[in-house]
Amino acid sequence: MNPTRTETDSLGPRLVPADAVYGVQTTRSIENFPFTHARLPLEIIRGMAILKLAAARTNARLGQLPKEKEEAIAQACEEVLSGTYDDEFPLPVYQAGSGTSSHMNLNEVLAHLANETLGGKRGDKAPVHPNDDVNRGQSTNNMFPSGAKVALILQLPALVDALSILTTALLRKADEFSSILKSGRTHLQDAVPVTLGQEFGAWAHAVSRQIPSIEKAADRLRELGAGGNAVGTGVNTKPTFRAELVQALNEATGEMFRPATNGIHLTQFMTDFASFSAALRSAALDVQQVANNLRLLASGPNTGIGEIRLPAVEPGSSIMPGKINPSICEAVNMACIQIQGLDAAVAMACGAGQLELNTHMPLIGTNVLRAAQWLTEAARVLAEKCIAGITADVEACRRHLENSAGLPTLLNPRLGYDQVAQLVKEALAEGRTLHQVAVEKGLLTEAEYDALIASSTGPNL
């Protein structure tokens, strides 16, 4: 049998693994919530650990915590933030709905590390107590969602950077392909001409517009309920505790968090997360459409559209030699679809709060964080592994343009609807292009036809 130690909580004594840094409440939670494949993200644990550090500094400044305890707790927080004790946070997403299980897991780990620093034994509740000292002035109901918000704000720069990289990659291709005329397509049917560069430019514009939307939604995450305690009223804390806690947090992170305008509201309602999740979903929709567009334009290579070539990243088939698939686009598609699913769960969970508390916070925090991370990875991999290596098949673009059923529209102002309709019938009956028939009949010169096509795409947006 593995060695154990005995710890006691309000339910009584309990055996805890002797080498565990966590304690009795964590042990109970491990048994109560056996969802072993759904671990709560460590980023949320670290978000709470940064808040714990800020709380220790604040409590010391307010005379609520002796200096030696402050320093021991702060050191423990730094050790947790370094990743040294990641294995001490085994609890799953599916646990007590406010995140109490993981919050107490963190309180126990920090208290035990602090006690060892001060000469105590692992498992002791003195001189540093997990509730009275590490958790002074705090409640899970505020600390868990605030920790999740900290985690998301710290993820934000990587997400914005990835979407900017994707935008830049698309803009480079827009410039590279600016002179390549091709058939546009609406309803997946031939439409009036565009340039390949215009298509890529439109996609770049779509992605770039998502960045300020995400940043705007993220600003609501900077408002924290930390220090509000059980229902957001700040019970058992000094009047300045919340403001000073947020100030200490900003000093530790370099960010611009702010205390809740209404702490009761932020304890009850999780729609700050829902707004950010919706912004992520919207961006994922655009990224998904870009990936789908690339797959269509690269389809073939001989029996599809085949106007572009995607870089080969892996053999595409275990049975068909030489086959290359749009693997990156497919992976990005799946990530974007999953982000939409995460958002649906977030929306339902945010609307499922009751009275003074939403009891679905671990699910909300985890899903929004995962969505932000997966969108970050999807945007970057699409840019670097796919778009950067795309080449154009100029001949295919020209061939499709010449055979496009959208070209007659361009001749209407010059030749009139009825005459153009007759030309279309002749071209179809003879198996020739509208271009050939119009020039042969002397209705247009080659130069006039080329100028008409070139002018049809408008400015190279």
Q: Can you characterise this structure?
A:
This protein has 461 residues and is mainly α. The protein folds into 3 domains: 8-136, Fumarase/aspartase (N-terminal domain) (Fumarase C, Chain B, domain 1); 143-215 and 252-394, Fumarase/aspartase (Central domain) (Fumarase C, Chain A, domain 2, Up-down Bundle), CATH 1.20.200.10; 407-455, Fumarase/aspartase (C-terminal domain) (Ribonucleotide Reductase Protein R1, domain 1, Orthogonal Bundle), CATH 1.10.40. It is built from 17 helices and 8 strands. The protein has helices at 24-32, 42-61, 67-81, 100-117, 130-134, 140-176, 196-219, 241-253, 263-268, 271-297, 327-350, 361-385, 394-402, 408-415, 417-430, 434-440, 446-455; strands spanning 4-9, 12-17, 181-186, 189-195, 223-224, 258-259, 308-309, 391-392. Strands 1-2 form a two-stranded antiparallel ribbon. Helix 1 runs antiparallel to helix 4 (100-117), helix 11 packs antiparallel against helix 12 and helix 15 packs across helix 16 (434-440). The protein is elongated, with a radius of gyration of 30 Å.
